[in-house]
Amino acid sequence: MVFLRRGRAVKVTVGVLVVVGVVLLLATHTNHVPDLRAPRALMSKVKENVEYLDDKNGNFEPAEIPTRTGPGEGGKPYQLPPHKQNEGSQSVSEYGINMVVSDEIAMDRAIPDTRNPECKHWQYPSDLPTTSVVIVFHNEGFSTLMRTVHSVVDRSPPQFLKEVLLVDDFSNKASLKEPLEDYISRWNGKVRLIRNKERAGLIRTRTTGAEEARGDVILFLDAHCEVNKNWLPPLLAPIYRDKHTMTVPVIDGVDHNTFEYRPVYGAGSNFRGIFEWGMLYKETELPPEIERTRSHKSEPYKAPTHAGGLFAINREYFLSLGAYDPGLLVWGGENFELSFKIWQCGGSIEWVPCARVGHVYRGFMPYNFGKLAEKKKGPLITINYKRVIETWFDDKYKEYFYTREPLARFLDMGDITQQLELKKRLECKSFQWFMDNVAYDMVRKYPELPANLHWGELRNAATSQCLDTLGHAAPSLMGVAHCHGFGNNQLIRLNMEGQLGVGERCIDADGQGVKLIFCRLGTVDGPWQYDENTHVMLHKRLGKCVALHPQNNQLILLPCDPINNYQKWTFAKITPK
Ligand code: LR7
Ligand code: MN
Predict the structure, then answer these.
(1) Residue range 66-111, pLDDT digits in tens
(2) Domain boundaries defined on the chain
(3) Which ligand sits nearest to residue 138's alpha carbon?
């Protein structure tokens, strides 16, 4: 690792010097804790401070690496030659990632620096905490896993990287046995490997990793990441300042087919994690009232939650919070559990624009949940959500979740006594506090939900078929299909404000027919009115009713005719399977 030397730092342009100065001043005046909010009057000292840029190694900015050529270098997309494309596609069906492409790309390829240019000029404490980078994996591709490790070792100041801890969640691929052990021996113990004796799922495996780790801070990564330039110090600095702060890097995208590295968000825009009432994770622009208080766009900012995979936290703090709820199963919802726990029990979460990490977004999930899922009936991820909301939401908010996911009320979430005790013992605040003080911008997008008037399958009286999204993504035409009783694409909700919904989408209509659409953000009302007596579904704006065309079985809007069976619809109960 080569650090930026003073000589180079002085060459920065005047415009940037202003930023540099502000950053450095504060760094030197507050025990080197980075905070960009320096008084403007101090800017005259800019030059002097630039001279100090490299003192105490406080900057950690690596020297430019000479440009190389080769597959995927610079984060460019790589296309396989025709004779390898078939093999490539096969690997996509096995891994959700094109491993033939990955294998062609250097383990230590260069990727574009996607940070805000200001980031080059931050200064960090020289005595940041040591870090265990914990990577849990189940049947991941060898070269993507090892590229993750290479990027961490190559792009982290060695004094802060205690170890990379790989935790194998009971993989059965030969490449992840001896070949993996052989490969990591090149790092002389800095990269450690432990293995589960049975499949535990990613959530419990991460807790195992946290218990085993030797660093002060644990930093979780998925097994298919590439960390970007100078990623580590900015994630550690807020934890150094306050060990109840968890930090989250900004995630860039790596294409699962071509390995093209490209930012999801530009360097100038900042987003933060929220969720909708069905507990689907979302990201939203940083609210203007927060943006206004910031002197620099590269400054860390508080966020209600995070995507889940990539974050740093003081190890003892994480364990003192009980790590993850041990009742959570395999995958999903753990990001919310940890976020609510941290915020409501006195900690905070910061997103760090100067820490960028690429993550391969797969086309589909290449593994199943194994025996762990068989034991539990019902959709496992919804069960996790239910545990989380039953522990952390206030009653009023729990109702929003059940309004949006009516079947969740009937799922067995197991015992949460221990979670409730922990919440009490740590004297954690209410969910209302969290909504008022942390996620206050959320209800602008996802207002509090009116209750459902009806939910279930919506059956046509003439054909006994059910309204169905037909599995199409919005925007698309809806249709009817044989009623299957499983809910999913046939679970229709009508709320008190006339909104018809299915999953997170809404239903509307126009001259073409009945449509699945994206709900208008920030609204919870809709155009529908259901007649409890005649069972017609009126579209108020169009003044017509939903009808099934007797000949072609398509949905159309017709003048309301309460004695026509093709216009009569009844909500039928779905019983959870
Ligand atoms: O049973 C398992 N055991 C495991 O060890 C299943 C998975 N895993 C490993 C797996 O090999 C991988 O390294 O766990 C890691 C995460 O699994 P992924 O990559 O299949 O998950 P994902 O990227 O699709 O999903 C996101 O949501 C998950 C919910 O539990 C986790 O929090 C993931 O870490 C998370 N990923 C991210 O946040 C990266 C950013 C993408 C987004 C949004
Ligand atoms: Mn992932």
Answers:
(1) 889 999 999 999 999 999 999 999 999 999 999 999 999 999 999 9
(2) 6-57, 452-572
(3) 1
Residue 168 to residue 177: CA distance in whole angstroms: 10
Q: Name 284's Cβ contacts closer than 8 Å, sequence gap at least 6.
A: 271, 272, 274, 441, 442, 445
How many degrees, rounded to 5, is the angle at CA 507 between CA 504 and CA 512? 140
Helices of type H across 52-111: 82-95, 99-104
Fold of 452-572: Trefoil (Acidic Fibroblast Growth Factor, subunit A) (2.80.10)
Centroid of ligand 1 to alpha carbon of 496 (angstroms)? 37
Instruction: Report the C-alpha gap between 474 and 478 in whole angstroms.
Output: 9
What's the predicted TM-score (pTM) here?
0.90
Could you give the CA distance from residue 365 to residue 376 in angstroms, rounded to a whole number?
Answer: 19
Residue nearest to atom 19 of ligand 1 (CA): 222
Tokens of 49: 């401070």
The answer to whether the CB of 201 is under 6 A from ligand 1 is yes
What b/e readout covers 204-213, taking b as 16+ CB neighbours within 10 angstroms? bbbbbbbeeb
pLDDT digits (tens, 9 = 90+) for 400-449: 999 999 999 999 999 999 999 999 999 999 999 999 999 999 999 999 99
Measured CA to CA in angstroms, residue 404 lies from 109, 197, 401, 500 at distances of 44, 38, 5, 11
Whether the complex's predicted ipTM surpasses the cut of 0.85: yes
d(CA 225, CA 467): 41
